[in-house]
Amino acid sequence: MIKQNLIKALIGLMLFIVAMGLLGMALEEELVVITTWIVERIGFAGLAAILMVTDTLVTPFPPDILLVVIANSPLAEHWPVYVGILGGISVLAGMTGYGIGRWLGHFAWAQRLFGRFKEEHHAFIRKYGFWAIVIGAVTPLPYSVTCWTAGVLNLRWSVVLAASLLFRIPRLYLFYWLLSSTGKLLSVA
């Protein structure tokens, strides 16, 4: 099941990157105007706040959109710094979501919802919990949902933090590189 979901997520990721590359090529000038306007209005602090909210709460807003903003705005000049800061904020947001999940785990409805699953799959969760967080950290699957669930299921916080630090931050760097390079790669082909 994990292998199938990972393959589906990676296919979805590749389709997203190709679509963004094609859109970037077709609408390059418009994209630069829009992203520059966004950065001028809310600044990097606004982008960071958006990421904190979207990676803490369950929202349909992927962080990759913020990477598109960075890649197509004046922020691109210092992208390693900005992407690194966003990576740290994403991990902080994930750990905040984990805390929310731990808090929610005390409620009877959450115990009913997750209790039986937790009892039946306790050994699996303990053995593969790290890798479940990794999948949530690197794929387009909602990272916030992964972290909330880890909290409700009482996965050790150190496991969540380690998986997030080791995979979430590099994922943002990789996605930035892919998003910023795809248009160049597709225009050469």
Automatic annotation (TrEMBL):
One Pfam family per UniProt: VTT_dom
Residue spans crossing the bilayer: 6-27, 39-61, 81-104, 125-145, 157-179
Keyword Nucleotide-binding in annotation: no
The protein's name: Membrane protein
Coiled-coil features, chain-numbered ranges: none
Lineage, uppermost ranks: Bacteria, Pseudomonadati, Pseudomonadota, Gammaproteobacteria, Pseudomonadales
PANTHER family on file: ALKALINE PHOSPHATASE LIKE PROTEIN (PTHR42709), DEDA FAMILY PROTEIN (PTHR42709:SF11)
Keyword terms, alphabetized: Membrane, Transmembrane, Transmembrane helix
Span of domain VTT: 70-177
Key word Transmembrane helix present: yes
Organism, scientific name: Pseudomonas fluvialis
